Amino acid sequence: MAVDLSLPYDPGNVFAKILRREISVQILYEDEYALAFPDISPQATIHVLIIPKGAYVSSADFGASASNDEIAGFARAISKLAEQLGLIRNGYRLISNTGPDAGQEVPHYHVHLLAGEKLSAKLIKKNAE
Ligand code: AMP
User: Fold this and answer.
1) Which of 13, 20, 48, 103 makes the best surface tag, with the fewest CB within 10 Å?
2) Pick from 85, 67, 84, 73: which is nearest to 32 by CA?
3) pLDDT, tens digit (0-9, with 9 covering 90-100), for 86-124
């Protein structure tokens, strides 16, 4: 079900459970600001999700409410992850679905990192419904 951006943060969402270690994932990167783990339903050879440690519903919420340190720390974490995965030379795609029109399903801000193959030029998200 698509995320309703007007709702407050729901601590019962799956990524909050991952942060609390109630659901186990393969941790690919972690620091004070971010956690990265493989997407359970990969859409590219490499498909990693990066989430901030703070409780933000969406990219919109994060940009509006996170501290400068959190925003900078999260951006740097993504770059460090990409370097760690050896992607700086061939590149990668970052996507953040935000709200119903983008088909956001999990109401905790996350960035998809897609890589490891030539990605199609345009479509960056599965079709809705
Ligand atoms: P979005 O549609 O942008 O909200 O993306 C949510 C993503 O979370 C989807 O690509 C799902 O495959 C992924 N996902 C949901 N549950 C898990 C989980 N337990 N571990 C890893 N990825 C998950």
Assistant:
1) 20
2) 73
3) 999 999 999 999 999 999 999 999 999 999 999 987 655
